[in-house]
Amino acid sequence: MNSKSFEVLAVLAEQAGLTQREIAQETHMSLGSVSTALTELRRAGQVASEANQITEAGRAALEPYRVKNAVILAAGMSTRFAPISYEKPKGILTVRGEVLIERQIRQLQEAGITDITVVVGYKKEYFFYLEDAFGVKLVVNEEYATRNNHSSLMAVRSILGRTYICSSDDYFTQNPFRSYAWKAFYAAAYSEGPTDEWCMEVGPKGRIKSVTVGGADAWYMIGHVFFDEAFSKRFVEVLEDEYDLPQTPSKLWEELFLDHIKDFDMVVRKYDPGVIWEFDSIEELRAFDPLFLENVDSEVFANIQAVLGCPPSEIRDIYPLKQGLTNLSCHFTTDSGEYVYRHPGIGTERLIDRAAEVAAQQVAKDLGIDDTFIFEDPDKGWKISRFLPDCCQLDPHDDGQLARAMQMAHRLHAEPVVMDRTFDFFQESKRYEAALLEKGPIDVPGYAEMAEMAAKLYEHVQAEPSKKCLTHNDFFYLNLLLDEADDLYLIDWEYAGMSDYANDFGTFTVTCELSEEEAERALEHYFDRPPTFAELRHNFAFVAFAGWCWYVWSLVKEAEGDNVGEWLYIYYNYAKAYLGKVLDWYEQDERL
Asked: Which of 15, 415, 455, 470 has the most other CB atoms within 10 Å of its CB?
């Protein structure tokens, strides 16, 4: 049986008695090709001569092409779908009255595919009900946060065969699934004009030869995929061979396929416009379902409406912003302006004193240091702020901007504020060291000597009088923004608390990678005069403490499998450069 005969036979297996014209519409074949295929199928006894009815011989001929199972990928975090994805997985959103993944499961089952596995990860508990409601199986991808979607296929590689691979958040206006499939394919839609999608170059018989990101007037990848036995066997080999390579974690499974595309026989399966829908943003989904925001069960949007007093229909231009280490943020617009919604990250309730943050944020607003602040929930940690369009980060190596940053710090430190929260770099380093020791002995060369110097330096600093005040404790260029009018803002007050005033200088020097000359110049701007020797050594002690604290923190993160990158070396270098030097300044009582 050739591919055209298969297509006609597969359609008749699901819709008996179609006319030649109807078959042509279903298969996207010409009437001539349909007629030729029917003649061959009748000759083989697989289609009855009258009324185009499939025979038992025809069903038997189709059986080797039956789709055995389906895998629905639902482990991802869908960060582009912020802020709703902060609360729940994208696949369980209700669109046009149906839950996305439920609609897809029903469509698979209607096509006779009942062996369905859902791979879950992010907020996996939202999918547990599917086992009882639809009889599907669940597999947990424990690596969803550190790897791309290839890790989900790794988790189910033993069941890949004649398998549909689906995404939990796709919407099909028509059921695209069939009981039988000829060979491996990737679903495709046509773009008239330019597109940013993955565009396919197709060779003879529809085989995918290459793929480019972006193109024009081309068929592009969208929606579901079908693996046949040969594709699955080779793909699993590639996946297992390359899974542990350092370049693999960030790759989509499609990239592994494309890296070895000559090894695979996968064809394009074309669909009419409007059949397959993928929603990369809330705005795209609203264009498809205008009542989506009015009907969505979202605490985030309820919070926005309560604070700003706007209806859901007024909230627009929603897109994620760069994510921080502890929080997730998105931009949105209403008729009254542009805003940022900050959603607290997982586990931040154990790290951040939100009541202290709110108090510090209010001080900053009253001082005019950060009047972007609008509201923060002190219990749950979500916050709404004014968005600064066309702003830029402070350049710490520009002397004029350096002066402004230091003068802002001085204004903050002069405020007669008392808070319960405190922050001490050395005590924080001891806490991180305890976490590191839980993983085994610390055998990093030079660590013990540096730890000893840090302890001695801390004793000297504790023995001298020093000003305790409200400090930002995350005082560096990423949190210092200049707007269109050249006004300076200090944002992100999560770590603010009562500390030695030199905390902010230490943090700034290390994180902005200031040279010693630049750091001394910063102190001159802070005091509005050259610092005394006592002031100089005290402040540079906090450069050493900041470098040391974040160096130990980096060792903990690396031990946990995270990649801190160049910051590990930066923190180490500042700790190494200043621990011994400043300790000598204290012990010799002079600058050496």
From this structure: 470
